[in-house]
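Deliverable D2.4 — example input (structure tokens):
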């Protein structure tokens, strides 16, 4: 059988995607032209066509569920950069499985190059293996083309300009644009989750880059210079949207759709997202998807940007430079408005978030608690590093079991210094009546731990983790209770709860 051409297949995919799964299209049985009044027509689909470029991780999956579910959008393809967190084979299988579960088995899924356009940057191996092994539904591939070719074919073949949401390394888009520079002028716009413009980065290798851009900075630079309209949703904006228990519990209570159940279950299998008391996880990719629907969720400013790709210290930095490209950048985000839109889209209708109204006194308390904790943690870090140097232990030695040796050696100085300082500072606070119980419990467990110094040192020196962990657990629980109380009031605090 003759295989259809790529462009012909793309046109078929576009026509198929434009037809609702619930609508039957009448086809005349006669070869003669029917009267004008009896000609069946396919209604124009008013939804905006979207290509989603992503890699299956917790945040990416939330964005996928949102884009597939929002009534104003029509997902026409999902593409994966081989440079993303998931490798191509498991990533495609999982994506196909999720789309089948969401009711969209016809949406094509394709993967792109495994290597960045230049260099050798990559997500940590442990992250990639974790993404590969996520407990997600699977389905067989349904697309022979590579992701860059699929993107190009759909963009060229669409009657309505396609919008692209890209929340991973930009390898696929860069390859497509380099192969055909005219493509950039055909897309309606590209919304990118990536970069850190006026805030710090989140990459281990330096303190200025964000992961998606760092993995393939050359690709990011290519996309910014392509001429396509770009909206950048960097860490500046996503830092306003920590994940947390309150959202998950609200979702869990109202998860009546396949999309809501998918996101709920993915969070439940990755509980750190629910119990996110130290502010490690955010609605990164979900915000980029939501901005496509409601730009009022964020505040925009134009920044003239370059993507550094020269030195290790600055590689992947999306920094301001007069010689750069003007880019529309989201700098802040409305957390409550975003969560409301995200939740309602997933559940398919009105939904309630279980937050409570906070008082000025509560906000002031949480801000002071965060300041006290930050100052104490910074001093602890200094003591730890000085002790490690004194013991002659480098980073490799710390990973090879030397960590607890350093903790044991540093503990007396920590307890006499920053630990006691934190207790004294917490005791000096004016505590709102609503938080007195939680506050008193936290102070009490901090004091109990200090009083048990001899027992703690004994457990550390013998390496008896089974004895040490129960000593420390009450501190984490009390700290988590404070952080959860802040979440309940929509207050963002970052506490190291160990």
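Example output (designed residues):
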């Amino acid at each position: 059988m003759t295989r259809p051409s790529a462009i012909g297949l793309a046109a078929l995919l576009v026509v198929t995607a434009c037809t609702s799964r619930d609508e039957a299209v009448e086809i005349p049985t006669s070869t003669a032209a029917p009267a004008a009044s009896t000609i069946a027509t396919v209604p124009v689909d008013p939804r905006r066509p979207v290509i989603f470029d992503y890699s299956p991780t917790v945040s990416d999956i939330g964005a996928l569920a949102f884009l597939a579910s929002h009534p104003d959008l029509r997902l026409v393809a999902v593409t994966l950069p081989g440079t993303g967190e998931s490798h191509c084979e498991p990533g495609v299988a999982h994506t196909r499985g999720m789309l089948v579960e969401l009711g969209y088995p016809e949406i094509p899924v394709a993967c792109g190059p495994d290597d960045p356009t230049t260099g050798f940057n990559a997500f940590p191996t442990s992250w990639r293996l974790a993404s590969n092994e996520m407990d997600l539904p699977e389905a067989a591939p349904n697309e022979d083309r590579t992701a860059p070719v699929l993107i190009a074919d759909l963009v060229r073949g669409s009657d309505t300009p396609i919008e692209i949401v890209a929340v991973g390394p930009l390898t696929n888009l860069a390859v497509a644009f380099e192969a055909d520079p005219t493509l950039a002028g055909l897309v309606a716009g590209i919304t990118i989750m990536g970069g850190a413009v006026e805030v710090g980065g989140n990459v281990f290798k330096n303190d200025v880059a964000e992961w998606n851009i760092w993995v393939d900075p050359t690709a990011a630079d290519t996309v910014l210079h392509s001429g396509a309209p770009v909206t950048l949703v960097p860490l500046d904006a996503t830092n306003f949207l920590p994940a947390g228990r309150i959202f998950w519990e609200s979702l869990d209570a109202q998860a009546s759709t396949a999309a809501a159940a998918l996101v709920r279950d993915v969070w439940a299998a990755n509980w750190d997202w629910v119990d996110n008391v130290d502010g490690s996880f955010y609605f990164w990719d979900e915000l980029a998807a939501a901005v496509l629907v409601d730009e009022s969720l964020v505040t925009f400013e134009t920044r003239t940007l370059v993507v550094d790709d020269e030195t290790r210290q600055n590689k992947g930095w999306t920094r301001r430079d007069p010689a750069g490209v003007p880019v529309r950048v989201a700098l802040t985000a409305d957390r409550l408005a975003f969560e409301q839109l995200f939740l309602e889209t997933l559940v398919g209708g009105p939904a309630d978030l279980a937050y409570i109204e906070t008082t000025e006194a509560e906000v002031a308390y949480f801000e002071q608690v965060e300041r006290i904790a930050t100052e104490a943690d910074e001093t602890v870090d200094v003591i730890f590093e000085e002790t490690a140097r004194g013991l002659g232990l480098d980073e490799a030695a710390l990973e090879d079991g030397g960590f607890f040796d350093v903790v044991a050696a540093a503990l007396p100085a920590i307890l006499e210094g920053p630990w006691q300082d934190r207790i004294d500072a917490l005791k000096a606070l004016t505590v709102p009546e609503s938080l007195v119980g939680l506050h008193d419990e936290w102070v009490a467990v901090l004091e109990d731990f200090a009083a048990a110094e001899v027992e703690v040192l004994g457990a550390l020196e013998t390496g008896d983790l089974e004895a040490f962990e129960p000593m420390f657990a009450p501190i984490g629980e009390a700290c988590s209770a404070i952080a959860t109380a802040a979440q309940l009031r929509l207050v963002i605090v970052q506490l190291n709860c160990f």
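Strands lie at 48-53, 73-80, 109-111, 163-166, 189-193, 230-233, 298-307, 318-320, 325-333.
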